[in-house]
Amino acid sequence: MSLFPFINQEVEEDQVKTSVIPVEYEIDFETGKLTGRLVKGKDAIRIWVHKALLTTRYKYIIYSWDYGHEIEELIGKNYNHDFISAEIKRFIEECLSVNPYILSIDNFSCRFEGKELFCDFTVHTQFGEVSINESYTNL
């Protein structure tokens, strides 16, 4: 509640939350290169998720300590597949939970093919669902 009865603080906070739409530079996922175009909303969240899952947390001083993942902790260790799957899920959820536009993550599945791990999951955002497919090697 505001100190001034004529100021409705709740309305102002709601307007700030709904007026910002995320914007990112588009990435061609097949080539891994920027296209030069800007994307908004759900497509921008997909780009953000991809970039966050490619960035190691605490490694680059340009990013805050909240941004990125800690999946490298599992590389080269001799953990069993069930432990790795559980930890990957936890690391990905921690990585993505810092984004205020992401509401939840579900339909998480992992499968191993040799030394490569494939993770598929759905990210629920304020702008709709985004299906994500990521792979990690040497796990």
Structure description:
The protein has 139 residues and is of the alpha+beta class. 29% of the residues lie in helices and 33% in strands. It is built from 3 helices and 5 strands, in the order αββααβββ. The strands form 2 sheets. A 3-stranded antiparallel beta sheet has the order 3-4-5, with helices on one face. It has a two-stranded antiparallel ribbon with strand order 1-2. It is globular, with a radius of gyration of 18 Å. It holds the Pfam family Sheath_initiator.
Structure described in brief:
The protein is an alpha+beta fold and 139 residues long. The chain has helices spanning 9-19, 42-54, 81-96; strands at 23-28, 33-40, 102-113, 116-125, 128-137.
Topology, pairings included?
Elements: H1 9-19, E1 23-28, E2 33-40, H2 42-54, H3 81-96, E3 102-113, E4 116-125, E5 128-137
Antiparallel strand pairs: 1-2, 3-4, 4-5
Q: Supply the number of helical segments.
A: 3
Question: Under CATH, the topology is which?
Answer: Nuclear Transport Factor 2, Chain: A
Counted up, domains total 1
Please give the CATH architecture.
Answer: Roll
Structural class: alpha+beta
Strand content: 25-35%
**Largest sheet, if any?**
3 strands, antiparallel
Q: Low-confidence spans: pLDDT under 50, at least 5 residues?
A: none
What is the 3D shape? globular
Main-sheet strand order equals 3-4-5
Total number of beta strands? 5
What is the succession of H and E elements?
Answer: HEEHHEEE
